[in-house]
Amino acid sequence: MLIGTLIILPLIAAILVWMMKGQMARTAALGFSIVEFALSVVTLFQLKHSPSDPRKFLSLDCTWIESIGVKFSVGVDGISMLLVLLTTFLVPLIILSSYKNTYEKPNAFYGLMMLMQMALVGVFAARDGFLFYIFWELALIPIYFICLIWGGENRGKITFKFFIYTLLGSLFMLVALIFLYQNTGIDGTGKSWALEEIYKAGRSLSMEHQTYVFWFIFLAFAIKMPVFPFHSWQPDTYVNAPTQGTMLLSGIMLKMGTFGMIRWLLPVVPGACEKYAPIAIGLSVVGILYASCIAIVQKDYKRLIAYSSIAHVGLIAAGILSFNQQGIQGAVIQMLSHGVNVVGLFLIADILFRHLGTRTISELGGIRNVNPTFSVLFLIVLLGSVALPLTNGFVGEFLLLAGVFSFSKVIAGIAGLTVILGAVYMLRSYQGIMLGEANELTKKFGEIAKTDKAVLVIVCIVIVAFGVYPKPLNDLAEPAVKLLLDSIKK
Amino acid sequence: MIALFTIAGLGILALLAEIFKFRKLLSFAVPMGVLAAYCLNFYEWNHPIRIEQFANMLQFGKLELAFSGVLLATAFFWFIFANDYFENESSSADHFALVCFALTGAIMLVSYTNMTMLFLGVEILSIPLYVMAASRKSDISSNEAGFKYFLMGAFASGFLLFGIALVYGATGSFDLATIADSVRIMYAANAVPGFLYVGVLMMLIAMCFKVAAAPFHFWSPDVYQGSPTVVTAFMSTIVKTAGFVAFMRLFNGCFFSVSDKWTLILAVISAASLVISNITAASQSNVKRMLAYSSISHAGFMLMAIIANSQTSTPAILYYSLAYSISSIGGFTILYNLTKGKEGQETFDLFNGLGKRNPMIAACMVVILLSLAGIPVTSGFFAKYYVLAGLMGKGFGWLIVLAIVMSAVGVYYYFKIIIAMYFKKPDIETPVAFESSHAALIGITTAFTILLGFVPQYIIGMLS
Predict the structure, then answer these.
(1) What residues contact residue A427 under an 8 Å CB cut-off, 6+ apart?
(2) Which of A309, A310, A334 is nearest to A322 (CA)?
(3) Higher pLDDT pick, A3 / A215
(4) Does residue B361 contact residue B434 with C-beta atoms inside 8 Å?
(5) Residue B227 DSSP class
(6) pLDDT per residue over A287-338, tens digit each?
(7) Which of A227, A242, A79 is nearest to A165 (CA)?
(8) Does A137 sit within 8 Å of B404, measured CB to CB?
(9) Tens digit of pLDDT for each residue in B366-415?
(10) Collapsed DSSP state (helix, strand, coil) of residue A371
(11) How far apart are CA B456 and CA B379, in angstroms?
(12) A301 touches chain B (CB under 8 A)
């Protein structure tokens, strides 16, 4: 029931927030999202104290469309719990970070954000193929409008490309899911969309059919993440979206793709995954190199983060597809770290833009002399992002590389470049923005707002805390990943 | 059955109104009559009447009553939408009569069991529409629309008649059940005369003309654009639904056994409809013309349900036609109110800044467009879902993939409206005035669009 509440609450919040006037909406949205976070922490404790069998899902199961076997079936295991937590943790931070931006029609803005949260929690908790698809699509609509109504200059065309691109991917996934559904219930139990039935159906398919299913579903996830060469919508969309929209996109929505691969691709067609993993990993690794190289030469800081995001997610995808304990576990942990870090980075880009009216690195410099606190916070977020040991980024990236290494040493070698190149573009940008002498523009930087500082401090605490002591994350992810791999190997 | 009589009676009543001078009453009486017919239809659903009607010419089982219900519900909404169309007409009574007769024809098309009734239904439906399309007498494009529609319609009727004659020649009957039987027997004995196939093909072409599937669609954009918006709405909802049910009864019923001969042809027609319509629609600047192409694309989708040729076909078409009709009526109502006084220039600019001017209406339009584009959780998504699921595993994988790519293209032109509403600046900032009845209608159709998406099982499960 708890998990049902986690989905319903944001929906109710969305309606209430939408009916409010002025900045009341923002406060209410923050309140609701904090309650939601508290609820998800309660869920976490219930999960930890539930009987030793990790298969036991905190779940809710109601009939929805009986004639086609669709159930409103949601539940959490270790992996989805972590992602639900990520969502409910980031949304309040994202709302808090918006306190210095005044958006027109705040009720609609925060209402859409709440709606988005509902869809995201739904995606991570869905245990029914049809429901998963519905939530998956539902997440797209609010973010589209957030980007369209409150976005930057060229938003019309850019958000449009984003929408069509992702929709096309999801439609292919829909076909694959329908196909799987039609193959369920061969042993006479009746057709069903339930996760287990989809797994069973997928594994019983011939290699040829598995191939189709694999590529159709992979396309949807690859576009969402995005993996090279399906990434062309991403940098423009990230740059043009309002900061909070970018945070939602990169912090949480991107994880829909990677999570989807763990839950709805690997276990469904393991045979095809194994067969085509080299190609898919190859694409991911090319994406890592490509995005890193482009990030190095970026002038706009926000665009640089956008490309860095492609690089990071490429490594996550490679880790998942390498199909072993470390790879997948690392992917789960890196999803969380990346989500938190990227929100911090985008907030920093937003702060720079709000204070100085530009994000172009070459026009900045010397902010450290003006505002040392900001520079320290910036540095911590940045180090988390380049995966320095003792930051959260290191834990995930290390496991990921270990996973890819046991898949192929050569690929691991190339993928490892992500760490080096990441350090190059991140440190270069830090040098350009913060170090050196302050110029005319940056002298006016001043103090950062309390709300911004609060968000950055929280982000930094998470970065350091989970970097020093990642055990809680591992404890949650490990058994779930193990279970997943065991069930596939059987 | 009762509904058919009621609607025909209403038509005659409307004709009498001119003589006995109670014209003013009609604008209330006819919609109420349609509503009453809907209720009676519902009554008949629960208390089926078993009589051999007109020597097995018509049949009113669950299926026919369900589709009559769709037609009548759509017609009721349409009458609310069209109220000022009738008010502004000098000869409104005639127009009421025409609409009622067209509706009679539509109900005949969903319930015929005999080829003669099919032909009569097609004609009773079409002839009033020719007049309605040309009803803006002083407008040259409206005249063109009527004329074009008439010529093409007559042409299609010719094909239909020829086809019926050939089928009669091969089977010796007009009765659908008898034809189905003899076709099956001939097919099993491998003794199907070649001219039966010619007849089937001719009827297929005629029906494709009527539902405006490519490459027989050329009349529809001009007719949709030239006709008054209310008439366009009538054509794209009620006429479309009736046409598809007639199509389905013929091919999923009568010519079921020779499906291997026609499914591939239909698949090609469906593919052509999807490709041509979506790609052409993307470059339109006139909204009505765009909607005409979008309607062709929906025809392509509904054809896919007929191609599936299984027990899922009927529920899929039932749901699709209901979802599409309801959303379309809402969309056309919004379009109509925006174009008031600007007939003939229905560009996308009309929607500029609607998100600021009328936020609620704009939100409704978004839901309607999402439904037309087939995005969850609207009814349009489930409509497409059922069609795709029905076709899966029938050896038409290429068509499914094509349909998916094309529905992504479809999003392009629907979203042009959304972008105009929220992104572009309007010329005038003041809200557009909507009549309260129209605003209510938009609200109701939007609510239905979402509701049908949440509980599709009630419609799908209706016939089982």
Answers:
(1) A382, A386
(2) A334
(3) A215
(4) yes
(5) S
(6) 999 999 999 999 999 999 999 999 999 999 999 998 889 999 999 999 999 9
(7) A227
(8) no
(9) 999 999 999 888 999 999 999 998 998 888 989 999 999 998 888 889 98
(10) coil
(11) 8
(12) no
Count interface pairs A-B at CB distance under 8 A. 73
Q: What's the rounded Cα separation, in Å, for the pair B238 and B91?
A: 23
Spell out the residues 6+ positions from residue B227 whose beta carbon is closer than 8 angstroms to its own.
Answer: B132, B133, B135, B136, B142, B145, B146, B235
Q: Poorest-confidence range of A229-238, B81-90, B168-177, B283-292?
A: B81-90
- Tokens representing residue A247 in the block: 């945070």
* Complex-level ipTM beyond the 0.90 threshold: no
Question: What is the pLDDT confidence band of residue B339, given thresholds at 50, 70 and 90?
Answer: confident
* Contact flag B419-A172 (C-beta cutoff 8 Å): no
Whole-number pLDDT of residue B167: 94
Q: Which residue of A has its CA nearest to B408?
A: A168
Helix or strand (DSSP H, E) at B426? none
B155 touches chain A (CB under 8 A): no
What are the tens digits of pLDDT across the range A272-292?
998 999 999 999 999 999 999
Minimal CA–CA distance to B363: which of B448, B454, B446, B452?
B446
Asked if B423 and A138 come within 8 Å (Cβ–Cβ), the reply is no
The amino acid at residue A423 is A
Residue B356, chain A, CB below 8 Å: the answer is no
The answer to whether the beta carbons of residues A45 and A79 sit under 8 Å apart is no
Between CA A377 and CA A374 the distance in angstroms is 5
Nearest CA-CA distance, residue A247 and chain B, Å: 22
Does the CB of B198 have a partner CB in chain A at under 8 Å?
Answer: no
Among B273, B295, B157, which Cα is nearest to B225's? B295
Q: Across the interface, do A65 and B456 touch by the CB < 8 Å criterion?
A: yes
The shortest CB-CB distance from B404 to any of A140, A155, A172 is to A172
Task: List the domain boundaries for chain A.
Answer: 289-490
